[in-house]
Amino acid sequence: MDSDLYPDLAAAGSLAAALEQLAAELDVDLTVVPGDWGPLASAGIASSVPERKPLSVHIGAESRWFGVSGWSRGVELITGATPDLAGVVRAGAAWGRGRSLRDLRAELSFLRAGERAEAHERGPAAVVELQWRTMREQATEEPDSTGFGELVEAAHAEPRLRQLYVFSSHWTLGFSSCTGYPFRNEVAIVPSHYGSPFRLKKHPLSDDVLGEAATAEEAVALAVSHLPSDLGPAVAGTAEHDG
Length: 243
Description:
By secondary structure, the chain is an alpha+beta fold. About 35% of the residues lie in helices and about 20% in strands. It is built from nine helices and eleven strands. A six-stranded antiparallel beta sheet has the order 1-2-3-4-5-6. A five-stranded antiparallel beta sheet has the order 7-8-9-10-11. The two termini are about 40 Å apart. The mean pLDDT is about 90.
């Protein structure tokens, strides 16, 4: 930590201590927890909302700034950077109280939340809808030789796949029953490439091939046959924790 950039942190002894001292001066109630990169350069501000992880705070190395990141259910909902430590204290308190993303951005201009984050705040159905729309838009830009575009459209036409969170990895289309990362992979389809068959896998990085198909529609039908019969729409959360 550069004491010229961070005289307040140097005087307090750590980022965590500086946050606690400033919160007391501002009469802001918050709980500071350990960060991911040691007490000098990072800290967390705890949340009373169970699904929200502590707001992560870290410092810049070459200029004075404090970066913040707020995660919930496997998704980064809020991010930003400011040279003002008081802004970080206020952001941590507001995040911890469960303030909406809209309210957070209105109150603290340095915070950012994208379309995907706002969809997560509305619920898993909104996330799935946005993800499919984004995937279909991306597919229109891919070369025809990959078979990726026709696979995306065929999968979207199938209701049982359309209710799942769709993502891609190295051209392979994956389907998850949760909307946060790490995903719960239900099935994945490798598109045709220059006439090769479509291949079905359990997840995108799996080496095991569950089956092959000549067309995108046949690959989708094969994928559906491997889904659990009681599988419903994707839920909020991750493969490690739902809800």
